[in-house]
Design goal:
Layout lengths: L7 E5 L6 E5 L1 H17 L4 E6 L6 E6 L17 E5 L2 E9 L5 E10 L6 H40 L3 E6 L4 E4 L1 H4 L4 H4 L13 H7 L1 H9 L1 E9 L5 E12 L5 E9 L1 H46 L5 H28 L8 E5 H11 L7 E5 L4 E5 H17 L7 E7 L4 E8 L31 H11 L3 E6 L5 E8 L2
Parallel strand pairs: 14-16
Antiparallel strand pairs: 1-2, 3-4, 3-7, 5-6, 6-7, 8-9, 8-12, 10-11, 11-12, 13-15, 16-17, 17-19, 18-19
Pfam families: HATPase_c (PF02518), HisKA (PF00512), PAS_9 (PF13426)
Organism: Pseudoalteromonas aliena SW19
Protein name: histidine kinase
């Protein structure tokens, strides 16, 4: 908040008793004019204006004999006080600015044993309000000047290329980063030119295309390849914004950010991701065929030799077959995980009941399973395929780890303003809280794979799909009486 020091600055020189006053000349002129009018209109013998907000009031300007004041004269900081003593009328009035800061006081004296008349009070109030308005306006002007200087300093320190063009696309301002693109002997010639004076017409037209869009539409943004005067090129994210000055003249502010390194990094990441996806897809495909052949061969041998081999050997055959089944599941899950980012995200409105009926056909669910859905057939608008994968993996996980003869899963849609909140609760053995963060990691299972078949990827896939759409998943359990997984899927 502004204070009196916003208008004046007191600087110690030799000691605390000697001070030098640095004062804005326009404010000083306003104070002098006020004192001159007060002396003439009210026939005052002396008049002073003092500044507050300092250890002791400081006299800013004064006319006539020095007025001796005490602390009692400044007690009332909100109202004017008028005293008559020995035929001397003294008026002390505070100067309170619109910013709720007390700038100081006006004090004047005259020879009189008669108090202020109503007319004098009205005139004095008008003069004081005029002075306050002048002080406030001058402060706003000073703040605007400070803001302009601050903005210029920020612009000069900015490493982005900043320039301002007029409606004829001539540069009227360029920051140091913009100028430094050019050789020193050219930097002084940038202002008042378009920098395309020597271009062929078609090339100049293309170069100024975004300027024209910004001028006519108000805004333009483009990622473009730009060429420096020395012939080197770079990738820039360029934003152009139209604005007008107080006279109505149109200008274009241009800010170009060099994102060459960022673009190169993105390209490298995309290439690496593409190679990884291709590798995963090819590997999974090439491994599935021989794995299926091995599995079929083992099953044939087991069927052909079931009456010839001892029971222990048949159990070993079955163990190998189970391992191939596990490998098949792992390959399928790995392939699903690698395709998460390319999954079809088409939106559709569908109910949880309909989603479960579709999932039910794909999952090998036990006949003793009971699934209760409490959603009142309410439609939710979601990317169907990723959402079905999430719900499918959560249901599959709840069934796979359930140790009850009659497993129960309760699915509910809870009310929320920003999310579709889906709660999936089971009556299984539960999960100890210390394992909550572990279960969402790749290849992590809390039970031996010989006891429960699974790749340990299902919950990780579900979480990644949810996070890709800005949601989250939470789990609660006491480790004894079932588990509850809560999915928060953003509505927008």
């Amino acid at each position: 908040m502004p204070n009196t020091k916003s208008y004046i600055e007191i600087t110690p020189l030799l000691n605390d008793m000697q001070k030098s006053l640095f004062f804005d000349s326009e404010i000083q002129k306003s104070l002098d004019n006020f004192i001159e009018l007060a002396i003439k209109i009210f026939d005052a013998t002396a008049c002073s204006i003092l500044a507050s907000s300092l250890q002791t009031p400081i006299e800013l300007c004064q006319h006539g004999p020095k007025i001796t004041l005490t602390k009692d004269d400044f007690k009332n900081s909100s109202n004017t006080t008028v005293n008559i003593n020995s035929n001397i009328l003294r008026v002390v009035t505070p100067i309170n600015l619109p910013s709720h800061v007390q700038f100081g006081w006006i004090v004047f004296e005259r020879h009189s044993d008669i108090a202020f008349t109503e007319k004098e009070k009205s005139i004095f109030s008008t003069l004081k309000n005029g002075l306050i308005n002048q002080l406030a306006q001058r402060r706003r002007l000073l703040e605007a000047t400070d803001n302009v200087e601050l903005q210029l300093m920020i612009s000069e320190l900015n490493k982005d290329l900043v320039c301002i063009k007029d409606e004829h696309f001539k540069i009227v301002y360029a920051n140091d980063a913009f100028k430094n693109m050019y050789p020193e002997n050219m930097q002084n010639n940038i202002i008042d030119c378009t920098t395309v004076e020597n271009y062929e017409d078609e090339k100049a037209k293309n170069f100024l295309a975004q300027d024209k869009i910004a001028l006519h539409c108000g805004f333009s943004q483009i990622v473009e390849n730009l060429c420096r005067p020395n012939g080197s090129s770079f990738t820039a994210d360029t934003v152009k914004q139209r604005f007008e000055n107080r006279l109505g003249n149109l200008y274009i502010l241009t800010v170009s950010k060099d994102i060459t390194e960022k673009e190169q990094l993105i390209n490298k990441i995309e290439a690496a991701q593409s190679e990884l996806d291709e590798f995963t897809s090819i590997t999974s495909h090439d491994l599935r065929s021989p794995l299926n052949a091995i599995k079929r061969l083992l099953e044939w041998i087991s069927d052909d030799c079931k009456d010839l081999l001892p029971k222990e050997h048949l159990e070993n055959f079955q163990l190998v077959i189970n391992r191939t089944n596990r490998m098949q599941v792992l390959l399928e899950d790995l392939l699903s995980y690698s395709r998460i980012n390319s999954c079809d995200g088409t939106l559709a409105s569908i109910s949880l009941d309909a989603i479960y009926l579709d999932i039910k056909e794909l999952l090998d669910l036990p006949k003793t399973l009971t699934v209760n859905i409490n959603a009142n057939n309410q439609l939710i608008t979601i990317p169907v395929i990723p959402f079905k994968i999430v719900i499918s993996n959560l249901i599959s996980n709840a069934v796979k780890h359930n140790d009850k003869k009659n497993p129960i899963i309760d699915i509910a849609l809870l009310p929320d303003e920003n999310y579709y909140v889906i709660e999936i609760k089971d009556n299984g053995p539960g999960i100890e809280p210390k394992y909550f963060s572990l279960i969402f990691k790749l290849f992590q299972t809390l039970q031996s794979r010989d006891d429960v078949e699974g790749s340990g990827i299902g919950l990780c896939i579900a979480k990644k799909h949810i996070m890709n759409y800005g949601g989250k998943i939470e789990v609660t359990s006491d480790g004894k009486l079932g588990s509850t997984f809560t999915v928060y899927w953003p509505k927008k």
